[in-house]
Structure to design on (262 residues):
């Protein structure tokens, strides 16, 4: 199937590792020019090198979502790109914490980066997409907005705010051929997931394999997803083939979210 991605430009945030990296690699292998965004330039250069080796095309933009000036610079860059057809709005996971009792400063700092920061960047991209009568906005969320994860109160709450924004936006920009969707990972085997499992094993003084086995037991597929499996959904929704799909939350979770409706 030709996804129609040749000649498209995709800006992928959090492209230095995990879900963002896998998405960037797959978009590049489908022929899109990819703008790789994250904080660490040297790591992005490594991803860029791999894309080049595979015959793809990529450039780098450094941005820290916690830094307002850095976000502004990225928005300015988006305004000047020759074109931007696809935005993958992805970020690091927010600080863990259980409700109640999370400090107001934590809420404010995380809201500024994860919600306001992403909205600024999404708006800058959508502005260009509307003018071109084509666009794909993909926001990486979490299963926690369907089934809240007790230890991740900030994530559950702020990603739900973002979900509200994306759904609202999707209606406004649909007449311009711009689609806006969220993709919800369940448990995908990224460096972040490995670090969380290693932390759990250390805290409980058990083998990491035991932690993983317990986690897998709650997933009908009986395993974590691969970053490539996750990226396949993002890439499809970014493609010409997904032209009539907007405002949805697509789950990539091996069946882990048990509810019928999102
Ligand atoms: P990850 O930690 O492996 O990668 C996160 C990416 O975001 C990296 O490229 C990192 O450099 C970048 N990043 C982090 N903080 C940033 C900042 N302040 N400014 C700019 N870039 C920043 O995470 P992942 O596993 O690839 O997950 C991606 C997102 O999906 C995260 O928000 C995560 O919480 C969420 N998520 C992941 C899973 C999973 O199973 N992997 C499940 C649910 C939700």
């Amino acid at each position: 199937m030709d996804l129609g991605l040749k000649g498209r430009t995709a800006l992928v945030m959090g492209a230095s590792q995990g879900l963002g990296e896998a998405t960037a690699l797959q978009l590049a292998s489908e022929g899109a020019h990819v703008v790789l965004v994250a904080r660490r330039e040297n790591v992005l250069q490594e991803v860029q090198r791999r894309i080049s080796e595979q015959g793809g095309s990529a450039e780098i933009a450094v941005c820290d979502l916690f830094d307002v000036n850095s976000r502004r610079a990225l928005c300015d860059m988006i305004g000047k790109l020759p074109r931007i057809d696809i935005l993958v709005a992805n970020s690091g996971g927010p600080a863990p914490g259980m409700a109640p009792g999370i400090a107001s400063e934590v809420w404010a700092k995380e809201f500024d980066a994860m919600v306001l920061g992403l909205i600024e960047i999404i708006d800058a991209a959508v502005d260009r997409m509307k003018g071109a009568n084509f666009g794909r906005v993909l926001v990486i969320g979490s299963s926690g907005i369907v089934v809240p994860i007790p230890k991740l109160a900030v994530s559950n709450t702020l990603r739900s705010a973002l979900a509200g924004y994306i759904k609202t936006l999707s209606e406004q920009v649909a007449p311009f051929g711009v689609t806006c969707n969220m993709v919800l990972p369940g448990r995908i085997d990224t460096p972040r997931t490995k670090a969380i499992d290693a932390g759990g094993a250390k805290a409980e003084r058990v083998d990491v394999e035991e932690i993983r086995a317990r986690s897998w037991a709650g997933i009908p597929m009986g395993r974590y997803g691969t970053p490539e499996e996750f990226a396949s959904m993002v890439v499809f929704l970014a493609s010409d083939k997904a032209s009539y799909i907007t405002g949805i939350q697509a789950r990539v979770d091996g069946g882990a979210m048990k509810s019928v409706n999102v």
Notes: Residues 14-20, 38-39, 63-66, 90-93, 113, 140, 142, 185, 187-188, 190-193 surround nicotinamide-adenine-dinucleotide (CB under 6 Å). Residues 189-224 form one domain.
